Amino acid sequence: MKFIHTSDWHIGRQLHNQSLLDDQRHVLDQIVSLAKTHEVDALIVAGDIYDRSVPPANAVALLDEVLNEFIALGIDVIMIAGNHDGHERLGFAARQMQASGLHIIGPLGAQVCPIRLSGEGGDAIFYPLPYAEPATVRQILDCEAGSHEAAMVELLKQVHEHDSQGLPKVVIGHCFLDGGSESDSERPLSIGGADKISPKHFQPFAYTALGHLHGPQYKGAEQVRYSGSILKYSFSEQHQHKSVTLVELNSGSPASMTLLPLSPLRDVRIIEGALDDLLKQGAKDPGREDYLMVRLLDKHAILDAMGKLRSVYPNVLHLERTGLMANNEQLAIASDHIKKGELEMFKDFFTQVSGDPLSEAQLDLLTQTLDELHKGEAER
Amino acid sequence: MKFIHTSDWHIGRQLHNQSLLDDQRHVLDQIVSLAKTHEVDALIVAGDIYDRSVPPANAVALLDEVLNEFIALGIDVIMIAGNHDGHERLGFAARQMQASGLHIIGPLGAQVCPIRLSGEGGDAIFYPLPYAEPATVRQILDCEAGSHEAAMVELLKQVHEHDSQGLPKVVIGHCFLDGGSESDSERPLSIGGADKISPKHFQPFAYTALGHLHGPQYKGAEQVRYSGSILKYSFSEQHQHKSVTLVELNSGSPASMTLLPLSPLRDVRIIEGALDDLLKQGAKDPGREDYLMVRLLDKHAILDAMGKLRSVYPNVLHLERTGLMANNEQLAIASDHIKKGELEMFKDFFTQVSGDPLSEAQLDLLTQTLDELHKGEAER
Q1: What ipTM does the predicted assembly reach?
Q2: What CATH number matches the domain at A2-261, 3.40.50.720, 3.30.950.10, 1.20.1340.10, 3.60.21.10?
């Protein structure tokens, strides 16, 4: 049994108001190719398929296309709803899709529904556990589960009790494991750390395919894993390497995992420097179309810095004027600046806008105008 | 081949801010029963499945349940998107549902996809044509179709050209046939009558299952039909009888149609009369829980008429004070009323609110208070 574990597709997500649909199509196509190359039996998507409970129509159309490619290749797909997904919407007509090998698990049911899939190295049983609040688990399972951890323990009881006839058990979940590394792009499941679950609960299973955290990682044991998201969904993820996880299960031996890297259409990076230096570097930067956060170190006012940067780096999404940050030194410079008087300030401004200093004639005219203004003020 | 033709479910629709989901579940369950009783081979839903392109989650869950019942009975379902539906959303994963007998046609494709279904009296070919604006048809079919009619003619060309091997052809469409009777609950397809299509284009086919108009009717020929909506979605439909159409196709003979009536959980009606009479009648009205528009004929002011009506008719959705309509007579009464003076008006008001006339003591106190007020005014 060979499958690809992925999660957190967040189809339809925007990064600083920039649609990522083309970027998502690009990596999803890669996952289709990887599945083909590695001849996998199944694709597991561990939640947060869409970014919102009501995804835009073009996100729905993209998912439809991608799923169709997997199914056409004879690859079974199991996907569960995450905390971002609209469970009822995602689960619509799911029972009618199963015969085609598409298993979508939207709302949590009272009974976990094991899915047995066949592969060359033997079969395996998958236990899909869509994301559910503890209150939902209490209501649906009619149990007392005060926390995310207690709720998961209740669900896993059913997995333990199910007779897999000696076949490996694979749990699919969407939750926050204690000790997991967060980024800026996960939406907290609850406030104050009450969402954490100990990884130990998953150790008895052959493999646990998790979603929620956007960095690929394992916790407690190598086979208890987050595949991570398919794209960097915040600048805090700039140093992460996105991938999907290729999992091989052979009866008798532990699961073997390989990370298959994804290469994005455009990277998400932070660059830092003085405007002139950045503009010069940008001219020969092969990644100048990446999604960028720029930290400008210049200490003086710059007219339309964003426009200048975008003439070289078209996808600057965010600009920080680090060099202008309020600190004593900066404040001192600012007050020095004011002391300069109108003449000096206008000279700076003119040079900034036109690229050239004032000519003699212009300087004369300016001085004369300022004198007249000052005289007028004094008379009043 | 025996099938039920229905349309315009508008799941998730509200009537004057009242959710109709329970009412919709009630009649949809009836359709399931009718399909079972009449042992039909298929269910055809000719568009406007949902009321909005983004239906509420409970509407999605209801449709999921209902479809599941039909599929579990072994009844094939073909449904097309209407002008109210979100085509991409409705068509999600449609290709993965076909093997289960669920055929959802969301966005229009360049090729009409004939669906062959089997029945006891012989097979038939269904040609589902989801609703599409002429501009969409021009783009997708790469043709010149300036109107709804021209666009339909282009689509029907494909139906004519398809070789059905002698089997009856059934067209499924969502459009406005010339001469069709409207109600207040259809959303116009375009302004100024440019949405009308001559019924003659559909006459060559064994049967045409149409959606859009909410009253059951046929145009041009008996087999070119609107099944009508499953519920009255406006008070203008109060006199309509809602039904689904049972269609039988036997090779060699024309289609035979029977209307199977639907009985709603609550009717949609208009009642008219004086408040007291209506309240008296209501006490013994078995349909007092119907959705009502009330036209009050009383000519005097009534405090909280809606509250009083709802104590007897809990689902009054709209109130018209027909008796207070501005006309000469009404104005005359109103000005008579003003001439009455404060004392008479307050006496009326008190009786209205408390149900009893003023006592002697109360009348004395009121007269005294009014005198003081008038004296005060005169002095000023």
Answers
A1: 0.72
A2: 3.60.21.10
